[in-house]
Structures are given as structure tokens and as C-alpha cells.
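U., I forgot to send this yesterday:
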Amino acid sequence: MEITLLKVEHERRENAQLLLPYIQSCTLFGEERACQSVEDAISHEDTWNTLTLTIPNRTRLKLLIEALKRECPDTNSIWEFDEYLMGCLWRAQRKVLSIERFDLPQSQQLRRIAQGFTYLSSITFEALNTGGNFAKLTADSRACFAQLLSLTTKRDQHIAGNIEGIEHLIQERFPLEDPDLLRYTIFLGNIHSPELYTERGIRVVELHNEDEKHTALKSAHVRLFRRICEAPSLLGDLTTEIIRHMIIDLMRGERFDNNILMQVSSYLQTLRLGEIETLVKRASPERPLVNILYEEVRV
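Result:
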């Protein structure tokens, strides 16, 4: 059985477009559905494979997607990605098989970790932007990475375990299919590395869009995260790099264009932690850090 793992940034339409040739060439597809339970996985698969694929036209599919958006509010950039992906799967008539299928208590526990990470990230970004206590900021930033590391490692190990037993899962969910004849393609966000936890042969493909500046910024984030994955003890030693990453992520959230982000990133690389602290202390609600940095690189 051929298994392909696609790693791509899970947001924006142009990133979803990178999946199209792989969807067309596979026979079964697994999309990222973070921390979902077995029950949720089965419900999603049954709905998609028996109902959604029979929708007769694009207009009806669009109505379904709009209903899903109302039920599952998310950022616009993620819905750009998911909407294009759903359209591709529908046009290619590809069935789906979820690779994340936690038991319900574990799914709920992981979702609580994810919610904690989201909350801590948001208050850290706010404090960073408006000049909060820098010692607390650095501690919270490291805690953000530690929570993300814990969550991602648990998910990757779980995904690897399901890949090990994928033939059994396929026979259970699709009893008329011969697993040996299937080409199963999975997409995950680009910080994931389930291949580290399985000896099974997997074809791993890292996908990048043509915006070289955006790709360079995102790749730097992924490299930092993977360094911490490989050696969690480095978390304290990488404080300066983590703070730099948090600042760039903060500015990405404010929708600064990639030219500005590259200039800010290059500027931050010249600063030591103490110099970054001085910048943060200059920030206030009236003059946020993102504005200060924009002014610095535009001089």
C-alpha cells in the first residue's frame, strides 16, 4: 500500500492549491482534523462519503460549506484553505479516512490543551504588543512552545500508530476495498512529523507556495519548532529565537505584508534579548510594538 504524507501550511487558498495533483492521483484522502475522537471521525467520514460526494452541483456544495462556517467559526485564511480543499475532493470524488481517531476522553483532554495554548498565546501577544512585563513575557512564550510541543508530539505519535495499522482500519471502514491497491494520501500542517514515530515506509512531501518571502518566514518557524521537538531541553536556551518568532507571528496576525515581515525579521536577528526587551518596553496600547517595528524598518 502506498502512503504519502503531505506537509503544508494549513491556511490560505494558494497553499490548498498545492494539494490538487496529489488528490487527483490518490484513491483515499486523509485531511487534518486536529484531536478528533473516533466518534467524530466516523461521523465525518459517513457524512462526506455517503452524502457530500452525492451533492449534484457546486452551488449546493457552496451552501453546505457556508453552513459549516457558521457552525465552526475559524479564521478566514483557514476557511480559504478548507473550502478549496473540499471543492477539490468533491470534484475528484475522493473518499476520506481520518487519521486522527482518539478515544473520547483523550480527545477532550487534547482539546483542552489546545484551548489553553490558544488562550496563553493570545494574552502573550497582547502583552508583547503593548509593553507587558518582559520576564513574564519570555516565560509565557516558552510555555506556549512547550504546550504546542506537547500537543503536537501526542498527535504525531497517535497518527504514526494509526499508520502502522492502516490496513486494519481500512478493512473496518471500507470492507469492499483491497488496501494493497489503495494510494492513501494524508495532509498535515507543516510542523508535524509522525514519520519520526514509525518504521513504516512513508513518502513525505513538503509543499511550499511560490511566495519565497512567506515561505522563508514559515520555514524558519518550522525549523525552530523541530529543533525544540528534537531536544526539548533547549527550550530555555532558545528564548531569544522564540521571542523573535512570537513578534513575527504577532505581525503576521496584523496582516503586514511579507516584505515588511522580512525586513522586521532581519532587523530582529541583529538584536540581542536585552535590546528586544528595550523595544518592548517602549510599546504601549497607544503605540503598539508592531507600529514601532514598522517605523524602525521604514526609516
